[in-house]
Amino acid sequence: MYITLESDYAIRIVSCLAQEQKRMDARSISEKTNVTLRFALKILRKLVAGNIIKSYKGTHGGYELARPLKDISLKDVIEIVEGEYAFSRCLEGSFCCSREQGTPCTFQRVFAEVSQMVKARLSEATFDKLV
User: Fold this and answer.
1) Does the pLDDT value for residue 7 go beyond 70?
2) 90 and which of 17, 40, 81, 105 could share a cystine (Cβ 3.0–4.6 Å)?
């Protein structure tokens, strides 16, 4: 099981901005992260909407981090791109894998524990520690 390519690229983009510690244009970000410009722009929009980065228009425009590195975690970046992390679909209210609708999956408790462990670890992994 892997995180999606979009999440991987989003992490690369935030890491790039964290390492450079300056405003960068989308083309430079794309080149440094090996993410196509079109895909980088899509991800940058999500990261701006999620308040991870800021965008600036004009001749001196570009992108920079919106928060201190200690306030940006892997969980933040991944969940902005993917939505809330859950180990299994059975943790979503709209999906029921049981034959009897409304009856919890027999594995649901374990999946919920695993999800919480993953979320906790991703929350601890902040970019000030990673870069």
Assistant:
1) yes
2) 105
